[in-house]
Predict the structure.
Amino acid sequence: MDSILKRPHWQLALLSGVLIGLSYPPLHLGFLAWFGLIPLIHVILNVKSGQAARLAFLASITANFISLYWIGFNSGAGFLPVFASLVGAVLYLGIFWAGLGYFVSSIEKRSSQGLIALPFVWVTMEFLRSLGALGFPWINLALTQTVYLPLIQIADITGSYGISFWIILINIGFYLAIISKDKRKYLIFTSLVFLLVFSFGIIRINTIDDIKTHPVTIAITQPNINPDEKWDPESREQNFALMHDLLDSALNLNPDLVLWPESAVPTYLRLSSLRRRPITTKLAKFNVPLLSGTVDRIINSDGEKIYYNSTIFIKPDDSIKMYNKIHLVPFAEYIPLSEKFPTLKKLNFGQGNFTSGKEYTVFELDSVKFSNLICYESSMPKAVRNFIKNGAQFITIQANDGWLGNSAGPYQHFELARLRAVENRVPIVRCANTGISGVINPIGIVQQKIPLGNEAIIIADILPIQNLTFYTKYGEIFAVLCIIISLIIFTSAWINRTK
């Protein structure tokens, strides 16, 4: 490794980008993240701040092109808008690594405390990257570790940012072992950091009490309908027939709830009593409710049509309750700032023009409460926290990753649900149109799964939660502490330099 660190700085930046990019699902190479940032760390600490920013940017766009290439596979829009989305996302996300490189390099030049600052600044960077209309916590380093269950258990205290912090510490330990004469000391430090988190995870896995509650039985349907054909007039009736066949099969399994995926049928279910009536008749026969994804529309006082990506909870008596998706996908489901500037809705990039919902809705199934996330929302830790703090005892996720084909996107999307389960110690039931559907317990264990591209129904018993985790109660306290410490280190470095 010593000889590798002597290579040109741009090659080291590229190497870190490749290693980090390959560490994300579905390749099961998450261990690469434990040392993948070493070349970039060496660069940042040994070049001027401006150059550190440029090289960190290069590393970021490399990593993100590898891990997020699937953005360019969206079959729901034309080639140019989709390619522009990929390039725009990668360049935008690169700005955050560039800022980190500049910030850490500046601290190093002023006080030689760049390595001390790095894990705190990294968490600060990830937190800032999650904010606003373009917030994208999807790509946080924690996603690389989901197959190593003991290593993600700290998330119920620190959130996913604690996992990222730990990864950076491991990289720093290995880096110091490489450049230092006393390699043994730093290898022992790195081993202790690894074993501390690993041991904590093992203890948590083995000490989380079984919840003594009555299980809820859910039938999960994965229809595997091509999303490009769902609203095609020639295939609409065929799609309705398939969903009714799946509903019949699901009801015969005697569940407490039937779950359909996002935008399950090509109609406005709330508005179309003609389409809803045959569904309700079947639900009434078995006295079982249905939770289905649907598009919805209202007409406001100005006569304007407002569209939502929604969930509809249909009870056997045909009473309904709606949830409107709050966290929409920018440039796919809406144009950012279009609510303040309606003329932006006239831009056509192949996107939908949905309006964001406002309420974290909780549904009731007998005495049990639950909430539903729609697709991209499962990448948002705050969304799950808010639902659970509102009373939800388990979480369902409705998704439609069919636009992304057999790319890495659906696999990464499924793994994000494991992080949400551990953070809040909540069972999660995921229902996706083309996959991946499955059941994840509060430890993050995948108990059942329907593979991508299969038509199937699975039946699952889940145990509703009773208690809130530290993370659910207090949110991103760990990230906020990292931000404060980052500012203290930078301020101290600046003051000492100016003396």
Summary: Residues 4-208+476-498 form one domain.
